[in-house]
Amino acid sequence: MHLVLMSDTHLPVRRPTRRVLPAELWAAVDEADVVVHAGDWMDPALLDELERRSARLIACWGNNDGDELRARLPETAVADLGGLRLAVTHETGAAAGRERRCDARFGPGGDTPVDVLVFGHSHIPWDSTTPGGVRLLNPGSPTERRRQPACTYMTAEVGDGALVAVRRHALPPGAAVRS
């Protein structure tokens, strides 16, 4: 099962240039079995388009999302993907103490035990495993790199109930801009 992970798309932003979801990412979405979005959409039109183009979409709202997106999406979504338990939520707090906090909620003794937690908010790609065994993934942002070297998203494979072949993709400069 092929996954595409994204977060913090923040679309559209109308400035002198307009951000768009990069063509490379749309191509990945079109090929994926499951698309995961960890919030901060900003525009319900992107949710509509991802629902239309995704074979399966697992998503949540973020802190910048308004009432319409919050009405359509949960704060945390949980799904079973071929025996792999996956959750997606926007915020997990500061990097310091993240593994401990995520274990408390999503680890084996937590309220929502999962194998993988996809999160966003920081725009900083992250890949770690908590002491309790929860894989934490933040795909970064495909449209707003902030202080990161590049805009990013992730892909992964699920096989035999396990997450394998996690890969971070750096997008070329300007890939998310349309004038």
TrEMBL record:
<dbReference type="GO" id="GO:0016787">
    <property type="term" value="F:hydrolase activity"/>
</dbReference>
<dbReference type="GO" id="GO:0046872">
    <property type="term" value="F:metal ion binding"/>
</dbReference>
<keyword id="KW-0479">Metal-binding</keyword>
<feature type="domain" description="Calcineurin-like phosphoesterase">
    <location>
        <begin position="1"/>
        <end position="160"/>
    </location>
</feature>
<comment type="similarity">
    <text>Belongs to the metallophosphoesterase superfamily. YfcE family.</text>
</comment>
<dbReference type="InterPro" id="IPR029052">
    <property type="entry name" value="Metallo-depent_PP-like"/>
</dbReference>
<dbReference type="Pfam" id="PF12850">
    <property type="entry name" value="Metallophos_2"/>
</dbReference>
<dbReference type="InterPro" id="IPR024654">
    <property type="entry name" value="Calcineurin-like_PHP_lpxH"/>
</dbReference>
<dbReference type="InterPro" id="IPR000979">
    <property type="entry name" value="Phosphodiesterase_MJ0936/Vps29"/>
</dbReference>
<protein>
    <recommendedName>
        <fullName>Phosphoesterase</fullName>
        <ecNumber>3.1.4.-</ecNumber>
    </recommendedName>
</protein>
